[in-house]
User: Fold (2Fe-2S)-binding protein from Sulfobacillus benefaciens.
Amino acid sequence: MAQWVRVASVDELKQQNPLLVVLDDEDIALYRVKDQYFATDDLCSHAEASLSEGDLKGFLIHCPRHGGQFDVRTGEARHFPAYTPIRTFPVKAEGNEIFIEIEQD
Assistant:
């Protein structure tokens, strides 16, 4: 069953500065591009590096380990050596709060 879970306030998430959030032992990277919000798995599908520690340039998150790139809107791998997409999560902002939709048992 899907459920919306509060993960941060709008003030906590700065432009182009990813934020790591942990939900039920699951690491999720949260992004703000202009006034749009996105969330993906935090681990790079190539080298298991933390994407929340990478550089966000526009809609592309750059893996800090080998430079693979992913589109935070779709999870699509956009630059070698990454070729496997990462999971994305629906995100919404209500007032000053940011929520991610996740599946829960």
